[in-house]
Every structure is written in structure tokens, then in C-alpha cells.
């Protein structure tokens, strides 16, 4: 009995010793393979399975006749129209106009969201002054502000960028603020013990601790900016993907409408994948279910 117990103890010790010597990534990968509670990692390009399956079903429905061309153009028809628009040079100026509006509003909104989250999350005065206002803004759809924005800022580009900025600001603020409030107090005490200045506390403790929440808010923001742009580009515009779609609606050109929707979808998906890539790089130290 003693011999069996000693052998069992030696076996455990050996496994623990090998686990300690193995790289952290290898141990994590082994745990993921062996645990039935943890999903395996998707192969490269696996995230595109859903969109590709949808396109195949859509094309089959068009070929069978379930979806007539007058109601919804087939994917192959939309691809041919997209190619013609590229060759004719009609799509490029509208695409760059839309991208300029979207990314300018996104950049301003993200910067404001981070600044407001830091002011509210690390200061009582900031929380009292800012948090309730942002929560009120969250309850009011950004598109509902369009009439007032037109009165205040006119019907030009400034109004469109302002609406995109307010749409983007809210998810960045909410998630970054939650990340700041979720920082473990032990890190705050440690920063005080080692004598960090307030600026060092923000750069070494607060911002790294809020990164998970920030990236969640950023993923929501990049899709929100394109969602707002779809509506805004149909209000008194002469260029942009939304303008092309609005004009195509008047002429019943469903293929052009599908091209516009596909551009918005691809840009939104690409933006989300880009944010997820940088999120994995920035948070590679974490050992979590989705790592």
C-alpha cells in the first residue's frame, strides 16, 4: 500500500515538474485539447464560414427562382455590377468619401470616449459631471438627433461626422469606464506602495487594466460608425456609397443596392477583424477561454 502511494505521489510530482518546465502557451494548448468545457481554436479563415454559407444559400435561391432579380439581385449579378463600376471608375470616389466620413468620425469618437471614461472613472467630480450625461445619450438614439444637428451644424459634412462621433463615443465610454472600475484594488494599493506618480498610475495600471473593456467597446464602435453612415449618406449627399444606394432605389437597381450593402458589410467585418487582431496581440498575456 505504501509502495503504491509512493508511486502515485512520484507520478504526480513528475507531471507537475513537466508542467512547470513546459512553456505557458503549450500548457494552455494542452488544457484546451483535453478539456471538454473549452472549444477548440478555429482554423484560419473559419470565422468566414457563416458569410460564405449565406452567399451559397442566397445564390441557390436566386437560381431556383425563390428570389427574383426584381426583389434581390443574385450574388453573381452583384459581383458583375461591382466589376463594371470599378472599371468605369464610378465607385472609387464614392467609396473614399464614405471611408473618410466613417473613419474621421470613428477617430474623434474613440478619442473622446477614452478621455471621458478616464475623467469619469478616475475622478468623483468627473463621474458626477459626465457619467449621467453619457447614460442619457445612450438612451437617446443618435439618429434621433439628426433634426437638431441639422439646425445647429447645417446639412453638410460637419453634421454627418458629428452624428457618427456621438454614435461611436457611447460604446467606447461605457466599456472603457467599466474596465477602469473593474481594476483590482490590490493593483491600486501596489501602485501607491511603490510610489507611482498619478501619470505613471494611469499609464502603467489604469490604461492596461481597462484594455479588455476598451477593445470590446471599440469592436462595437467600428460597426456602429458604418451603421450610422448608411442613414446619414442618404441625407442631402452627392457622393458616398449611401448616395449610390439611394439613387439605385429610385431606379429599381437592386444589384447596385446589393453592391452598396456588400461594401458596408465587408468594411464592417474587416474593421472588426482588425480590432480583434490587435486585441489578441495586446492581451496575449491573458489565459482565458477565447485566447
Element layout with pairings:
Elements: H1 2-21, H2 24-34, H3 49-64, H4 75-88, H5 92-121, H6 124-139, H7 146-153, H8 157-181, H9 185-193, H10 198-232, H11 241-251, H12 254-282
Helix pairs in contact: 4-12, 5-6, 5-8, 5-10, 5-11, 6-8, 7-8, 8-10, 10-12, 11-12
Feature tags:
0% strand; MetI-like fold; single chain; mainly alpha; disordered N terminus; 291 residues
CATH superfamily of the largest domain: MetI-like
* Strand elements, count: 0
Compressed to H and E, one letter per element, the order equals HHHHHHHHHHHH
* Class from helix and strand fractions: mainly alpha
Termini distance? 43 Å
Looking at the structure, what is the overall shape? globular
| CATH architectural category of the largest domain | Orthogonal Bundle
- DSSP helix fraction: over 70%
Question: What number is the mean pLDDT?
Answer: 82
Write down the Rg: 26 Å
Largest sheet: none
* Fraction in beta strands: under 5%
Number of domains as seen in the coordinates:
3
Structure description:
With 291 residues, this protein is mainly α. It is built from 12 helices and no strands. It has 3 domains: 2-34, no CATH class; 42-72; 77-282, MetI-like fold, CATH 1.10.3720. Helix 4 packs across helix 12 and helix 5 packs antiparallel against helix 10. The model is unreliable at 1-22 (pLDDT under 50).
Write a compact overview of the structure shown.
The chain is mostly helical. It has twelve helices and no strands. It is globular and about 70 Å long.
Amino acid at each position: 500500500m505504501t509502495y503504491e502511494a509512493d508511486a502515485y505521489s512520484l507520478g504526480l510530482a513528475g507531471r507537475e515538474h513537466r508542467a512547470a518546465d513546459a512553456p505557458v502557451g503549450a500548457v494552455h494548448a494542452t488544457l484546451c485539447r483535453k478539456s471538454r468545457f473549452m472549444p477548440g481554436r478555429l482554423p484560419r479563415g473559419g470565422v468566414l464560414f457563416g458569410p460564405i454559407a449565406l452567399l451559397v444559400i442566397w445564390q441557390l435561391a436566386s437560381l431556383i427562382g425563390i428570389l427574383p432579380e426584381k426583389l434581390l439581385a443574385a450574388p453573381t449579378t452583384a459581383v458583375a455590377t461591382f466589376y463594371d463600376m470599378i472599371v468605369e471608375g464610378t465607385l472609387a470616389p464614392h467609396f473614399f468619401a464614405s471611408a473618410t466620413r466613417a473613419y474621421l468620425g470613428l477617430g474623434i469618437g474613440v478619442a473622446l470616449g477614452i478621455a471621458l471614461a478616464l475623467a469619469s472613472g478616475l475622478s468623483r467630480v468627473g463621474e458626477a459631471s459626465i457619467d449621467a450625461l453619457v447614460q442619457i445619450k445612450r438612451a437617446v438614439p443618435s439618429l434621433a438627433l439628426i433634426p437638431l444637428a441639422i439646425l445647429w451644424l447645417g446639412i453638410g459634412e460637419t453634421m454627418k461626422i458629428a452624428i457618427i462621433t456621438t454614435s461611436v463615443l457611447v460604446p467606447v465610454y461605457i466599456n472603457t469606464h467599466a474596465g477602469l472600475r473593474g481594476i483590482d484594488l490590490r493593483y491600486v494599493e501596489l501602485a501607491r506602495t511603490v510610489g507611482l506618480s498619478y501619470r505613471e498610475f494611469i499609464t502603467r495600471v489604469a490604461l492596461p487594466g481597462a484594455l479588455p473593456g476598451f477593445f470590446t467597446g471599440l469592436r462595437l464602435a467600428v460597426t456602429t460608425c458604418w451603421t450610422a453612415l448608411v442613414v446619414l449618406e442618404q441625407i442631402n449627399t452627392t457622393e458616398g456609397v449611401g448616395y449610390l444606394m439611394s439613387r439605385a432605389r429610385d431606379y429599381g437597381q437592386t444589384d447596385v443596392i446589393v453592391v452598396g450593402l456588400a461594401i458596408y458589410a465587408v468594411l464592417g467585418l474587416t474593421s472588426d477583424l482588425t480590432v480583434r487582431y490587435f486585441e489578441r496581440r495586446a492581451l496575449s498575456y491573458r489565459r482565458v477561454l477565447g485566447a
